[in-house]
Design a protein that fits this description.
The protein has 149 residues and is of the alpha+beta class. It is 39% helix and 21% strand. It is built from four helices and five strands. It has helices at 82-91, 94-100, 102-114, 118-145, and strands at residues 18-22, 31-37, 42-47, 56-62, 66-72. A five-stranded antiparallel beta sheet has the order 4-3-2-1-5. The model has no long low-confidence stretch (mean pLDDT 90). This is KOW domain-containing protein.
Length: 149
Amino acid sequence: MADIDVKIAQWKLVEVGRVLLIRSGPYTGKLAAIVEIIDHKRVLVDGPSTEENKIVPRHALPLAHATLTHFVIPKLPRAAGTGPVKKLWEKNEIDGKWAKSTIAQKTERAERRKNLTDFERFKVLRLRKQARYEVQKSHAKVRAAAPKS
């Protein structure tokens, strides 16, 4: 038999210390860490964010209402209280890492786009037309310079 090295996609595992994004419920869009696994469908989460408006109190959360992120708080003990979770959260700079992630940036961009006024939407439309025109001009130059076959 051939030696086959199978590796599991580590970031998809439900584990204590895994940071997740809450997708539904009163804490939609906020981050929390898994503190304890209740059963195969529910986990106990705690979100001691450094920002006041992003704090998630400790509660049971169905996994169907969450998206796992690739961030993990290493060496988080099972059923750790809010104090130790908060210390490890700040030590690992979870909020800073999340702000730099592409998911957070796309969400923030979509939220900003959603809250535009009518005039701001019009300005975006004009800027997109302008950019498209410049791209078409440069493509036309490249096509004109290309040798004819």
